[in-house]
Amino acid sequence: MDFLYNHLLTSILFFPVLAALVILFLPKDEAKLIRWTAFVASLVPFALSLVLWFNFDKSAAGFQFEEQYVWYEALNSTFHLGVDGLSLTMVLLTTLLTPLALLASFSISEKVKGYFMLFLFLETGMLGVFLALDLLIFFVFWEIGLVPMYFLINQWGSANRNYASLKFMIYTMAGSLGLLLAVQMLGVAFGTYDLVALFDKWPYAATLANVALGGMSIGTVKTIAFWAFVVAFAIKVPVWPFHTWLPDAHTEAPTAGSMILAGVLLKLGAYGFLRLVLPLYPMQAQQYAWALAFLAVMAIIFGAFGAYGQTDFKRLVAYSSVNHMGFVLLGIAAAAKAAGTTDAHIAMNGAVLQMFNHGLSAAGMFFLVGVIYERTHTRILSELGGLFPLVPVYGGILIFTSMASLGLPGLNGFISEFLVVRGAWGPLPGFTALAMIGLLFTGAYILKGIKNVLHGPLNEHWAHGEHKLTEISLREVLVMAPLMALILWIGVWPAWILDVINKAVVRLF
Amino acid sequence: MTTELLIWLIPLPPVLAFFLIVLFTNRSKALSHTIAVGAALLSWAGSMVVFFRAVGEEHFGEHPFASSVNWLPTGDTWFKIGVSIDPLGAAVLFFVAWTVLMIFLYSVGYHNFGQPKGDHDRAGLPPHGATVTDEHGHKHTVLSVEPMYSRFFAFIGLFAFGMYTLVVSDNLLTMFVGWEIMGLCSYLLIGFWYGKPSARAAAIKAFMTTRIGDVFMLLGIAFLYKATGTLTFSEIFTEETLGVLANTKTFFGLSAAGAIAILLFIGTIGKSAQWPLHVWLPDAMEGPTPVSAMIHAATMVSAGVYAVLRMFPLLTADFTGHGLTTAMSVVAFIGAFTALFSATIAVAQNDIKRVLAYSTISQLGFMIAALGIGAYIAAAFHLITHAFFKALLFLGSGSVIHGMEHGVLHTGNHHIDPQDMFNMGGLRKKMPITFWTFLIGGFALSGFPIITAGFWSKDEILADAFAHGHWAVFITLAVAAFLTAFYTMRQITLTFLGEPRTKEAEHAHETPWTMTAPLVILSIFAIGYGWVGIPEHFPVLGGILPNWFHEFVGGTLLEHPEAVEFSWIPLGTSLLVALGGLGLGWLVYRNVKSPAEDRLQIPVLKNKWYFDEAYDFLFVKPAYWLSETFTYLWMDKGFIDGILHSFGKAAAWVGDAIRNYFDGPVINDFIADKLSHQWTIHPAARAVRKAQTGRIQQYMLASIGVLFVVGVLVYYFLLA
Amino acid sequence: MIPLSWYLILAAALFSVGLFGVLARKNAIAILLGVELMLNAVNINLVAFWRYGSLASIAGQVFAIIVFAVAAAEVAVGLGLVISVYRRRNTVVADELDLMKW
């Protein structure tokens, strides 16, 4: 046990890979065995991260449960892991959503083995980003996550999956190029990739050793590097105008893929802002906070408009992610602008909590879209309609989740949106006011979805005969139940999670 | 139990009922309504205890019941939420508890509990009636029970939770939570019969229109929080905080206090359906009648006014007593304009519930206008009396509709609209309890002198406007009050007086006790509640009863507001408009038989000044265009994806070019094929390949030969 | 004792016989036999050199044993190939197996 406790982060990080290797040796026709193995295996990291959560000392400064091993001696890059309040929340989100996504994938019947293995690899990739305290390791995991996701979309997606997976892959890769260059520059200049060391050195560096600046001042170099980081993360978040890969990827991905994509992968981008951009570039972030806020507001407004303009239910939900993640960036921009003030802390609390909340509600929404898609094989809103009397339980769950997504007070989304708006009002009042347009249209598209799926005139096609719509199954309810419980719990009593976030935020920003 | 704990507990029973019904008991109608009504009863009992303890306290205004807990960590401090009941809260709690309980009870009868299941009823549509066979073998069509009976009680339970939360909150944020939960319930309940296209549209319209107000309110909350660092009322409404807010300048020459007040007030415009966001309320009549009564008369729309009452110190922070501030002028203008504007529309409506809907908007305008001119107590007073008599009127109209539906089922003519007043007439004999209670409610609404509550509260608003010289407001409200009395009498005349105009009206039937009992109880308040607020200097009656309302609710404010001087002019006006309106209404409509004879069916009034059409053109259609065409097709699909695809195309073009113009001709054709293959390697290979015989022994011989040669060379060069 | 050269002459003769077999015989099995003769010629050399060299070091013997093992393996593989070739082409005549010819 001691060994496990001392290597808790590594265990969480690599257990999914281990499980995937076990699955590799299972007979490929035993679909049931593979599913259950993957599902049970994914519960282990979740249990471990609960151990992590309860043993985490939220009042202590710095990173906890640190582990450091030699990795690439020549570059002086070490395998350095650690958690603080920000990453802890994200780790919990990831390990919670993965079992649920796997449970949601039980209906996958093609190439089961490959599917579940890729999913477990994906989990390790995502966790690695959240746990890494070394820039190079961060980058490695950042890229690792892409590969399984690419194949999940490409192999198990729907009609237009080739286009979508390629767009996803190339777009994200293109964004990472600048990041890689900037990371290398930091590594060369300071001879280390260790984040803890870089946080101390880089923001205040007046000269750069070993780097030919080509006649540029250090300020210019930092600005360029700042934008390189920002673009990489902005594509992942995604921020307007880099968002167009998202509706395609989300729409074409299999249900569980969309859940993880919206629930966790988008958070990687936002996490990049929190972990790297703001601590490494406080000055530049403050200087360009208006630009970030502008992009955020555009994402909020046009995400909402985009969602409202959809005829495809899943695309509508996909666009809602753009809208919601815009609030995360708005909070980050406000925190950058007002660094060190209460406004910044509140905005940042809101942004981090919004990341967590969006993980819950977006994953839930995508799953619910998947439930209806599995039964009807259509996502076109006008072909659904009036389904409430046929599937009352599903309808209730859909309304609940939609309301969480809408930001109804009493549910989780409201708390985080309120905190962001409150925090951003001080430093960025104009942008905050504009964001309200997006908030208004959030209501419009959510109601459009509910109206077309549940209310609307009943499409008799689904009421009788072989197409008769069946009610949501127990397994599917079990996927939603933890999400809904958390949505309500955070909405009513957010202190348990917000306290962890808050203590970390106060120390960092 | 301490009062504070009790206040914490008040909102909980309805929300527990909601969860219980949704999760467990939704299959049992009796159990569901027992739980819901029981929960309402518990909350009612709690509210009454709190109310009477509050009334019993000395100097209650300075020491309200309050308790709070840490809720959100914000940096180094905590954001606290809590409950508090001050005099205003207690007064509001009183009427909320009563109306909510009455409406819960009424819903049991309204949704035909105990009646058989309908023949063709399905979830999402109102019940159509059931066929039963009596002992003689005759078939009758009777009212059928609502298919989604349990769900209705779950929703109104959640709604009651929202309202109680709003009232007991000690801070703006949880108040907003209650506010929005009510918004959701209003959406769900208006769209309760979602099978009807009109109900669906109305639900979305209600939610979206109020949400416009809500987002501004959210901004106002953020602004207030930023400016003061707290959202707790008792911490904001201190002299120094208000002073700072009043002296901070912001945009448009407003003080911070004024700007925040206006932002919050926009929320009220949405929620209380004030012009220009009034359009949702009339359409909201698509919901079941108890919903109309509860949401659209007694509680939710009152919440808007309650919010302004709460924010009154902020609204008047930079008010010196001479000349209204910008913020107050805005409020007063909106209120007065709405009061008159919607009264004009109410005159031309034929649907019994729509008349009441416009009347509600108009009456809320009265309260808002009163707040705009600083008449705090008058507004609070009217809020409460109005909640009672308007709930009574809505429930009464529901009872009328229910009776008419009975007639419709009897005759089987489903083309008769049971809500159209021109299909009624003479119902006073068929439905006596409904008639008398409706009459009380209607007279209270019109401000019938002395005996009704509406008279006292409306008179107080007019007196206040007059005493402080707000002539424009005074005249506007007086005209609105005249129209109010007029359309109320029109409604009563068309519905109850005269002779039945249709067969259905002849066969109308009094409703069950669960519906009439709430009417009777509410009508007691519609009369009696006026007596707690009779001005001290009122001729003859003044001073017999103490002006308890003024003393009690006035204690909420830091400075106790002074009672206005008595004057005959507003009283005379008030008497004149009420009696004149009622009389004229009766004279004009006693012989009107059909809409064609009604001279006030003017298109512009009938069509509500064309606001729906204008909004559709100005906002709804552009929103569609902006989303579907501009954002999605042009910007995302066209522009951004266009740029991305052009990268893709450029890359593909470069690849093509390299392949077609370099790789192909130069590398493949020239270097690989010609230069290497055809000219060099090929001939050479041709020559050499002769050596490859394919015979293994020749190869071996050759290798031995090579070995021999190598051996000789090694010996010769290295060893020798 | 018989002088070392006798053994060497014997080995050389055996080797030559083997070489002749490998180069001249048409039958693939005969070629393999030739290879075996050559290997055993080497073995004779190895053992002879050990006997006449230092008795303490056993490298010669060990080498011989390794050569046995290799020879056995080689024959096994070789015969396997021959059988396989025979099955496919119905001949074991080396001249006819000229697939490697251009």
Features:
heterotrimer, B: 720 residues, mainly alpha, 28 helices, C: mainly alpha, Helix Hairpins, 0% strand, elongated
Summarize this, please?
The complex is a heterotrimer of chains A (509), B (720) and C (102). With 720 residues, chain B is mainly alpha-helical.
How would you describe this structure to a colleague?
The complex is a heterotrimer of chains A (509), B (720) and C (102). Chain A has 509 residues and is mainly α. In chain A, 73% of the residues lie in helices and 3% in strands. Chain A has helices at 2-6, 8-24, 31-55, 85-104, 112-131, 135-144, 146-156, 161-190, 195-201, 218-236, 245-252, 255-280, 282-287, 289-308, 313-337, 342-376, 392-406, 412-425, 429-455, 474-492, 495-508, and strands spanning 64-72, 77-83. Chain A has a two-stranded antiparallel sheet. The relative contact order of chain A is 0.10. By secondary structure, chain B is mainly alpha-helical. Chain B is built from 28 helices and 4 strands. In chain B, helix 2 packs antiparallel against helix 3 (29-56). In chain B, a hairpin with a 2-residue loop joins strand 1 (65-74) and strand 2 (77-85). In chain B, the strands form 2 sheets. A two-stranded antiparallel ribbon of chain B has the order 1-2. With 102 residues, chain C is an all-alpha fold. Chain C has one domain (4-96): Helix Hairpins (Orthogonal Bundle). In chain C, helix 1 packs antiparallel against helix 2 and helix 2 packs antiparallel against helix 3. The longest helix of chain C is centred in the C-terminal third of the chain and has 31 residues, at 59-89. Chain C is elongated and about 50 Å long. Chain C starts with a helix and ends in a 13-residue tail after the last helix.
The average pLDDT of chain C is 89
What are the segments of chain C in which pLDDT stays under 50 over at least 5 consecutive residues?
Answer: none
The total count of strands of chain A amounts to 2
Largest sheet of chain C: none
Q: Which overall shape of chain A is indicated by the principal axes computed on the Cα atoms? A: globular
By DSSP (H or I, 4+ residues per run), the number of helices of chain C equals 3
Radius of gyration of chain A: 22 Å
Instruction: Please list the strands of the largest sheet of chain A in the order they lie side by side.
Output: 1-2
Gap from first CA to last CA of chain C: 55 Å
As an assembly, this protein is heterotrimer
Return the average pLDDT of chain A rounded to an integer: 88
Q: What is the count of distinct domains of chain C? A: 1
Query: Any low-confidence stretches of chain A, pLDDT <50, length ≥5?
Result: none
Helix content of chain A: over 70%
What is the number of E strands of chain C?
Answer: 0
The first-to-last residue Cα distance of chain A is 36 Å
